[in-house]
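Glucooligosaccharide oxidase
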Amino acid sequence: MGQTPSTPLSDCLNAVCNGRDNCVGYPDNPLYQISWVNRYNLDISVEPVAVTRPETAQDVSDIVKCAVANSVKVQPKSGGHSYANYGLGGQDGELVIDLVNLQDFSMDTNTWQATIGGGTKLSDVTSRLDANGKRAISHGTCPGVGIGGHATIGGLGPSSRMWGSCLDHVIEVEVVTADGSIKRASETENSDLFFALKGSGAGFGVITEFVVKTHPEPGDVVQYSFSLSFSKFEDLVPVLLQWQNLVTDPNLDRRFGTEFVMYELGVAITGTFYGTKDEWEASGIPDKIPVGNVSLVIDDWLGVIAQQAEDAALYLSDLSSAFTAKSLALRPDEALSSNTATDLMKYIDSVDRGSLLWFVIFDASGGAVSDIPMNATAYSHRDKVMFVQGYGIGIPTLNQATRDFIDGVITTIQSNTLQVLTTYPGYVDPSLVDAQASYWGPNLKTLGEIKSKWDPSDLFHNPQSVRPGETS
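Tokens:
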């Protein structure tokens, strides 16, 4: 554990660790930032008061009690992929509970419900479900993301239109609350807390264990990819509008998930259809999706997961970097008009982008995600059919031109289509003026009431988490 000045907090944490190696790290450790903190976004500095790595729910409980006794804020960290480093507190002086050691896994073969430790990364979720009955759940494509953050914020991915979000698979959790209690939460037990944990979890507790419903893995899966050469981005307007018309169709086959990705050297459309080639052709999608330099590959579930992870690594990988990110969530009536799409592409053509590493990603949503009522979970974007994400990456540092460029992408779309900015809290944006309202919208008042009951002192805190008594 190294040497650290004795303080009431460090004395308490050291007692919990009881001499175990790799259990707690402090800022006086010369490798603290590299080995313990390990920021995902190198553009945002943060120094926690300590980083802990518990091995059990009881460890988490004891660590929370140390924080309470010393009036220190707490944030859990699962994979650590917060765009604003919120798993590290998002600001100096918070206590981090890194769940990396919570890796338990079991499968009930009668119910096909899986129990998954709160520190499990998505790549391990996939492989463990596969090894225990060829089962699957819906989740995102980045393999290094931890389920602890993913399944408590939303958890969107290519299969979400078919199966719902990752959090829609969660049926029960074990959670440590702000008084250090270890509790179960579900729709029938501590249901108000369960509501909050399914969409705004980082502000309400530390989930040590998830119980999730699972599905049989799909058999054949069709992977569609499209690329296009062009002289200027304005040439992409008809292609973007054609893709958007497809994904905003309320009758779009739910077995289909897709992204439209723009970057410095081109554009790519990726699609995943969970079915056979014959079913793909019968769906009508091939007649509506852009055609050009198209590749069609038939694969199985694990092969598709691997390819999606490779695609995701092209824009934001598991490697730390300095980057900026902005996003918008769009209802069907907020889809881009021809004028907005043209304004956007003209803007990209004309502006100083500041970096060769940037991406603007349009991501289809809706389908099964929208079947669940808006007020059933804290996640409030049930009415959205599309998300827009802008990323700008600096090597080695991020410059102001790239920040301004990504800001301008979102501003150009928002000013023409949206009255109120709403966005997915998984695409966290530290610059938002009214972040809580943007993230949780109509559910914010209820969340504020639940926060007042379960965490009135705001122990579980980051710069944009739900506050006690939040109303707007």
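The chain has a mean pLDDT of 94.
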